[in-house]
Amino acid sequence: MKNIAVLVSGGGTNLQALIDAENRGEIDGGKITSVISSKKGVFALERAKNANIPFEVLERSNFSDNKSYSEALLKILKDKKIDLIVLAGFMIILDSCVIKAYPNKIINIHPSLIPSFCGDGFYGLQVHKAALEKGVKITGATVHFVNEITDGGAIILQETVPVLDSDTPESLQKRVMEQVEWKILPKSVSLFCSGRLKIDNNRVFILAKGEI
Ligand code: GRF
Question: Left, alpha or beta for 184 (phi > 0: left; psi -120 to 50: alpha)?
Fold first, then answer.
């Protein structure tokens, strides 16, 4: 069984989707054993508490830079024997010390079809605002591995939703979350934990169950 840490900074709806999937028996070979938040008082912590998952707050404001923050985080992850790190609305750019310690073992969810509307500065409603300004007719979300380039790691799963003429950034964000994010994040985590993701040259291949 792989130990999963979910890193959060906000409401935690993606964390909830993972908890619900685990409760339905849909996380094959993995268990959420830790929730770590970069902010105190966020609702994601309530979700962890309600699900009886050990949680802690490692506040970014107590550290002078991302490097010292990441070093402290890495120590916690190692102490807890974490095998997979899931970034679910975690608002800190991890320093390379964490990325090097967990190569292709960190998964992020981004609310656009990478390589569109991603990279530095594209987070939250900004992403959906940019999609509307560009006038794209479809958008979606991407689950990818984390490397040292923001939103640049190998893509695991992507799915689309239509953009409607009446959309606002808020309505588009809601559709992307409900119809895509909450579905493809648990699915990707399950594929990882059951050993079904093979990475070759920055491409991810999904192995059939019999191929493992
Ligand atoms: C999601 O839109 C996710 O794609 C992005 O941050 C948001 C987190 O929302 N990385 P929540 O905290 O899971 O509700």
Answer: alpha
Percent pLDDT > 90 in the chain is 97
Residue 210: helix, strand or coil by DSSP?
helix
Beta strand extents in 38-181 (DSSP E only): 55-57, 84-87, 106-110, 138-145, 155-162
Report the predicted TM-score, pTM, of the whole model to 2 decimal places: 0.96
DSSP 22-43: HHTT-STTEEEEEEEESSTT-H
Q: Does position 211 have pLDDT exceeding 90, yes or no? A: no
Query: How far away, in angstroms, is 180 Cα from ligand 1 center?
Result: 12
Catalytic entry in 110, 144, 175, 187? 110
CA of 210 to the centre of ligand 1 (A): 33
Q: Give 174's contacts (C-beta < 8 A, 6+ positions apart).
A: none
